[in-house]
Amino acid sequence: MNWLNDIKWDAQGLVPVIAQEAASGDVLMFAWMNREALQKTAELGRAVYFSRSRGKLWFKGEESGHVQTVHDIRLDCDNDVVLLKVTQLGHEPGIACHTGRHSCFYQRYDNGAWHATEPVLKDPESIYK
């Protein structure tokens, strides 16, 4: 696993990860991975993150069904940020955000306030039981 040693892990053994939709280029979400999560992502071809709040691996879509198929894993020039190019599954268009939206980056700053720019595609109450 020498390729994992090339990554500059933070003091908690984590690296920030950006998930980008391969087809559209949309930035879907930001999360964290530890070594095991990144290794499993590479092995499975499916996004596996590390949940800091739960202190464990989080297989994207394990509860919601909104799985991310990984097509490409990239590392930035400083070796401290990972980019996943993914296909977001589970709903059309794919839902990446726990709020039921396509992207977690749905709020846009405008004139002193944040405004939602993407609709809720599915009620989160019906996604998470």
Description of the molecule:
- This protein is α+β, with helices and mostly antiparallel strands and 129 residues long.
- It has three helices and eight strands, in the order αββαββββββα.
- It has a four-stranded mixed sheet with strand order 2-1-6-5, with helices on one face.
- The protein is globular, with a radius of gyration of 15 Å.
- The mean pLDDT is 93.
Structural features:
129 residues, alpha+beta, Ubiquitin-like (UB roll), 4-stranded mixed beta sheet, two-stranded antiparallel ribbon, 35% strand
Based on CA atoms alone, the radius of gyration comes out at 15 Å
**Which topology does CATH recognise?**
Ubiquitin-like (UB roll)
Uncertain regions spanning at least 5 consecutive residues = none
Principal-axes geometry comes out as globular
Q: Mean pLDDT, rounded to whole units? A: 93
CATH architecture: Roll
Structure summary, number of beta strands: 8
Brief account:
The chain has 129 residues and is α+β, with helices and mostly antiparallel strands. The protein has helices spanning 2-5, 35-44, 124-127, and strands at residues 15-21, 27-33, 48-51, 56-59, 68-75, 82-88, 107-110, 113-116.
What's the structural blueprint in terms of helices and strands?
Layout: H1 2-5, E1 15-21, E2 27-33, H2 35-44, E3 48-51, E4 56-59, E5 68-75, E6 82-88, E7 107-110, E8 113-116, H3 124-127
Parallel strand pairs: 1-6
Antiparallel strand pairs: 1-2, 3-4, 5-6, 7-8
